[in-house]
Amino acid sequence: MEDLMKPLQVEKKYFTPGVIVLSLIALNGLVFLAGRFLFGIGAVTNLNNQYPWGIWIGVDVAAGVALAAGGFTTAALGHVMHREKYHAIIRPALLTAMLGYTFVALGVSVDIGRWYYIWHPLVFWNGNSALFEVGICVIMYVTTLYIEFLPIVTERFIGNVRLKSFFSFLNKPLNKFLRILDKGLAKVMFFFIILGVVLSTLHQSSLGTLMIIAGPKMHPLWQTPILPLLFLLSAISVGFPMVIFESLIASKSLGLKPEMEVLSSLGRIVPPILGIYLAFKIGDIVIRGTFVYLLQFNVQSVMFIIEVLFGAIIPLRMFLSETVLKSKILLFIASSLVIFGVLLNRINNFIIAYHPPYSYGAYYPSVGELSVTIGFIALLILAYRLIVINFPVISLPDKQYMIQTKFTIRGSQK
Amino acid sequence: MIRRIIFISLFVLINATLFGQAKVSKNHPLTGLTCKTCHSCNVPTSKDPCLNACPRAEMTTVNQTPAQSPEVEVMKELSNRYAPVVFPHRTHAQMSEMSGGCQTCHHFNTIGPIQPCINCHETKRQRDDISKPDLEAAYHQQCINCHREWSHRIDCTSCHAEKGSNESAAISSSIKKMTGKIHPEIAEPKKLIFETKYKSGKYVTFYHDEHVKVFGANCVDCHKQQNCSQCHDKGKATMIVTSLSGAPIKMHKPEQQHHKPCFSCHQDDKCSTCHLEKPSGPFNHEASTGWALNKFHENLSCSKCHGSVKKFEKLDPACTSCHNNFIQGKFDHSAAGLKLDENHSSLECENCHENKDFSKPPVCSSCHDDKNFPKDRPGKTVGKIPSKKIKSLK
Amino acid sequence: MQKQNRRDFLKTSAILSTAIAGLSTNKTKAKPKEILSEDRMGVLVDTTVCIGCRNCEWACKVAHELPTKPKESYSDRTAFKKLRRPSEGALTVVNEFSNPQNLNIPTDVKVQCMHCDHPSCVSACIVGAMSKEENGSVIWDTDKCIGCRYCMVACPFQVPSFQYDKALNPKIMKCDFCFERTKIGKLPACVEICPVETLTYGPRSELIKIARDKIKHNPDRYIDHIYGENEAGGTSWLYLANQDFAKIAFPNPGDKPMPGTSESIQHGIFAYFVPPVFFYAILGGIMWITKKRKEAE
Question: What phi and psi, each to the nearest 5 degrees, are found at residue C3?
Fold first, then answer.
């Protein structure tokens, strides 16, 4: 079956009613974003000296990074372990990761007070800082992701460079350049693929190290020295469910037939990883004895239970069931639950568990913060749609003439 | 003579050796002084103790009554930001009587001459010895807590005048204002009856005047750290005054707090020493001890015989336990109102006073069959013979 | 990408791992300035002496060129009605608490940056904009800061504040121990103005001795605890009080340096870049073996 599938541009109109709604949501976010840049962070957020980090860090950055984990998990599976079967989903996952990390970078730029100094970590280094490690790794990983995506761009344009009138003389040299680039990239791509996996492992875990320094300011249910491990494990376990989730949504939205066979076998990989994560998570509160805090009834204990029950235990059971793996809708629900669990975990770690010593009241995200976050998500979806329509990302049933094109591109290497 | 010379030279020798080896005695640093009170250098040695000059003749120590102390002081060592401070010293000395006394401010200054604060407290904030506050802080730390305790304010201007052209006029006018001002006499209660919650020993009668006048207790023995705010509070219209009417006072503070002032002396006493079934009368030496005070004793302060005020000691009723001069040859008998004639002056005391019990009348019968005191006297009467002795004969 | 032989693979790997190894040596040198000098300075705050005149608040603002009302307005004691915290507009504030020993004399407590010996803000700062200076000050470098506010998350005392209302060049504001003043031999502004010398400025080791002496000679006046001697691994500012520090709004960060765990994890993961390179090598090995197997099929 997959032999007949090839990554192709999706032939669809860009604008649909859904796209227009998303555009409006994105526009709303951009308005608040303009407010942030014109009048300062205080103008649009509920952040204060007690709660310096809100959902822009907790959701846009921390959850964003975790949910873009599909990129490196599928790369590890498909490229490092050479499971050819999954090649069909590598490109969409790569695109999600690339866009995800781009928006993480944007989210960071919006949240930091001096966005124009975003390049400073490249120059001023502090090896003790977990955030520095996250920053450097994210910068490197974003670059890596763009490099990994480059072949898709070259594939799209080789033999297709058609600049208009004045620039038309460039067509030939550009085409040649693309060919050389493609050839070169193919040779070193393995390096970037492994690098991507290593960098992801590093910063996914360091993202967990971030909150350790907050010490007693963090609720004991979450504050643990193994936070980096938990972050890494949860990121790995959310990787495949995220791929399943977006494949199902994309196929629905683009009117394609989902590749259930690939998705089901992806789903089969989930339980062991999710199980290990759950074991560490439960083991941690048992060994540290912090499970006693679950007996108290407060926001923290309720959120912890929701996170573990709905985000890990229930989906784990679902992924173990063959019925779920075969059913589009159940598979979608199970994946959504894992995503929800990890999203909630990041929100819990960065917002719910964080209890500053002199808070005047709890932190709730402002309309501005929510608008920007939701706007970014809308923008991400719009960008995804734009790219899959214009670039060969999603695998579609092959057509003869496409094979021909393909042959000419790759054929040049032989 | 030779014996005398040897004795003197031995004495000199021994003392010289002792002083030569003199080390800082064990009690030396415990006397509440800082080194700087007496020594001018940082490391005094026995060879070079670098003692401050001590002009004993004109030395004024801190142990004075408020009346002896200076009336108004002008403190001008730090008058750079504000005008000098006019300080009504005597009024404050009076106030301190219920708290720490003179040493509240003149701390570490118990036996030497009065040290001005500036001797120890440096005028600059930036200094090497940071173990004690600088002068500004020393002044303020002494003054402010009492002031803010009753005024609840810490504004500078209640003590400081602004620096300016009419500075000296302002100072002289405030000196004038403060001169002659004294705290009105504090009304002392005669007795206080406390009604406790105990079933047996419900009443404690406290004779205030007795404790002061008879027992010789100092105010500070019981009134510990009571400053102005004990009675004065700017926020409240009336003064806080303890009931002077003599009506029983109900207990209103925790037991420990009620006991605290008494326990500085009465800590070892039984409950029943103070707690009685009904309000009790004033102190009676005979009733309490079984030993009546005669005219020679009734005007003595208690501590004369019983030692320190805080811990009166029980005495042996034998006269000679105190009067070690009640022996033949040492005692001038005319002090007892009777000048002994020649025949009797050489007798041992116990020849007439049986068992050396001088509280009983003398007995003549050991020598004379026909003589009887007080009809017959062994000499000339020079004063009044204690009536008690005569009474006991009747 | 599919077309690539073993020699290529090894060659490129070798070059790139050397590059990373080179990177790692640079990285370990780039630690923030973190000298824990023996004679670093500190301040002993005797809260039993403080009268709450708030002159220090005024002096601090003047010294740091922050807008302030006239000095006279600071005698307004209604400011004590609610607990205040150091903020971007006031780097130090005084709070008032009831005094169990004497209700007429409330306990006033000045708060500002504690200037930790092992500051978590210094450890946390992504660009090393925070540094612990030789004289004990923990200071902030405006030229490096990117405004990420991780220092605020990390600080156990919740001290650094941020100019949220500034769109351009917002600053992290916190007490800098008057670094610019002490550099030229002046006292910190608050220490200089304090009328009762609640604040004693001196070498930290000497201050601890003085504090111990004070406790020893006035056991009724102080509780036997020097806050800051061990808290968060020790701080340059030390406090004495007449009641439990929790009652006068001091957090209990424990006695271990705050950055301890995170730094050891951080250095454990990196350890001169050995674990990442090792991991890279393993992945490379797997990739190569599976590829071989695939080709064999």
Answer: -90, 95
Peptide bond before B261: cis, by omega within 30 degrees of 0? Answer: no
Chain C contacts in chain A segment 89-148 (CB below 8 A)? 108, 111-115, 117-118, 120-121, 123-133, 135
Q: Does A209 touch chain C (CB under 8 A)?
A: yes
CA distance C284 to C16: 12
The answer to whether the CB atoms of C120 and A79 lie below 8 A apart is no
Gap between the Cα atoms of A224 and B307, Å rounded = 68
Give me the number of domains chain C comprises: 2
The radius of gyration of chain A from alpha carbons, rounded to an integer in Å, stands at: 22
Query: Interface pTM (ipTM) of the complex?
Result: 0.88
CB B70 within 8 A of CB B90: yes
Distance CA A101, CA A106 (A): 8
Query: How high is the mean pLDDT of chain A?
Result: 87
Domain that holds residue C289: 6-30+261-296
A 372-411 residues inside an 8 A Cβ radius of C:
none
Provide the mean pLDDT of chain C: 85
Closest by Cα among B166, B150, B149, B146 to B87: B146
The domains found in chain B, sorted by start residue, are 66-178 (3.90.10.10), 191-228+261-306 (no CATH), 320-393 (no CATH)
The conformational region for residue A369 under phi > 0 = left, psi -120 to 50 = alpha, else beta, is: alpha
Q: Pick the closest to residue B150 from B257, B236, B243 (CA basis).
A: B236
C200 and C279 in one domain?
A: no
Higher pLDDT, C22 or C199: C199
Q: How far is CA C194 from CA A327, B5, C44, C163, C212, in A?
A: 74, 67, 13, 28, 22
By DSSP bridging, strand B379-381 and strand B275-276 are: unpaired
The DSSP code for B39 is B
Q: C251 and C198, same structural domain?
A: yes
Pull the structure tokens for residue A268: 């089969």
Structural domain span for residue A139? 7-398
**Residue B100, SS3 per DSSP:** coil
Which residues touch C101 (CB under 8 Å, ≥6 apart)?
Answer: C242, C243
pLDDT > 90 fraction of chain A, expressed in percent and rounded: 52
Q: Is residue C237 helix, strand or coil?
A: strand
> Is C touching A (3+ C-beta pairs, cut-off 8 A)?
yes
Report the run of H or E that residue C203 belongs to, with start and end: strand C199-203
- pLDDT value at C61 more than 90: yes
Q: C95 pairs with which residues across the strands?
A: C109
**Model confidence over B85-132: pLDDT tens digits?**
888 888 888 888 777 778 788 887 656 677 788 888 888 888 888 888
Tally the domains of chain A: 1
CA A287, CA A279: separation in Å to the nearest integer?
12
Q: List phi, psi (to 5°) of C239.
A: -125, 145
Q: How far apart are CA A282 and CA B85, in angstroms?
A: 70
Which of C52, C187, C195 comes nearest B140 by C-beta?
A: C195
Q: What are the φ/ψ torsions at residue B56 (nearest 5 degrees)?
A: -60, -40
Is B38 exposed, middle or buried (CB count within 10 Å of its CB: 0-12, 13-18, 19+)? middle
Contact B350, B362 (CB under 8 A): no
In this structure, are strands B379-381 and B338-340 parallel, antiparallel, or unpaired? antiparallel
What are the two backbone dihedrals, phi and then psi, of residue A287, each rounded to the nearest 5 degrees?
-65, -40
**Cα angle for residues A238, A239, A245 (degrees, 5° grid):** 80
Residues in chain C: 297
Determine phi and psi for C95, rounding to 5 degrees. Answer: -115, 155
Nearest Cα neighbor of C1 from A291, A79, B300 is A79
- List beta partners, residue C43: C201, C237
Q: Which residues of B touch C195 (CB under 8 A)?
A: 136-137, 140, 144, 156
Q: How far is CA C236 from the centre of its chain?
A: 10
